[in-house]
Amino acid sequence: MKLYEAPSPNARRVHVFLAEKGLEIDREQVDLRSAENLGEEHLRRNPAGRVPVLELDDGSFLSESVAICRYLDAVHPEPALFGSTPEEIGAVEMWNRRAELNFLMNVAMGFRNLTGFFKDRETCVEEWGQVAAETAASSVAMFDDHLASNRFLAGDTFTVADITFGVGYEFAQRVKVVPLPESPNVARYLSELGERASWGAS
Question: DSSP label at 182?
Fold first, then answer.
């Protein structure tokens, strides 16, 4: 297998997931600033032009970070980062979707539209970026309230939902486009995530 990637929260999600599984695979960088991801070679891997993309041993390609993680979880089921019982699977899916749709996606839209990082290839709308950033910030309260009585998002076990929210939150802290509220339970939680060996994966 080979992972085609570029520095991004989505690539980092896969890195942490691989580290939790104890897996190592070959990696190849795709240069986003030079629009290598929009070139013919990469578009054959993923017609959407995004990264990361996982090349499987049979030469086929799998894109979208959660889809890649689901594949890896099926091939290497321990530890079960998407849950084991029906209840766990449902809870993990719920919190992973909340982390992705309510928080990470809005952070990304705030970043892209407010910083103009890709303004040479996409239309940036500052007002949309501002709304997305404010939506991301307002969603933090839901996570902070939940973490007041839960060690991790889906309960007592670390899962892919924690990877999504933790990586997304760190990205928000780094790009500084989201007015993150004071959230003591999220702070405790992030400190614990940072102590995991997988969290240093890059």
Answer: P
- Single-letter residue type at 9: P
Task: Express each pLDDT in 67-108 by its tens digit.
Answer: 999 999 999 999 999 999 999 999 999 999 999 999 999 999
CA distance 153 to 70: 18
Reported pTM: 0.94
Local confidence band at 121 (pLDDT 50, 70, 90 cut-offs): confident
Segment 156-187, tens digit of pLDDT: 999 999 999 999 999 999 999 999 999 999 99
3-state secondary structure of 59: coil
Alpha helix stretches (DSSP H) within the chain: 9-21, 40-45, 65-75, 86-97, 105-115, 126-147, 160-175, 184-194
Q: Which two tokens stand for residue 184?
A: 């003591």
Amino acid at 185: N
Number of residues in the chain: 202
The pLDDT score that the predictor gives to residue 172 is 97
Residues 26, 3: Cα–Cα separation, whole Å: 6
Sheet bearing 2-5, strands edge to edge: 26-29, 2-5, 53-55, 61-63
Mode of pairing for the β-strands spanning 2-5 and 26-29: parallel
Burial grade of 74 (CB within 10 A; 0-12, 13-18, 19 or more): exposed
Q: Are 77 and 71 in contact (CB under 8 A)?
A: no
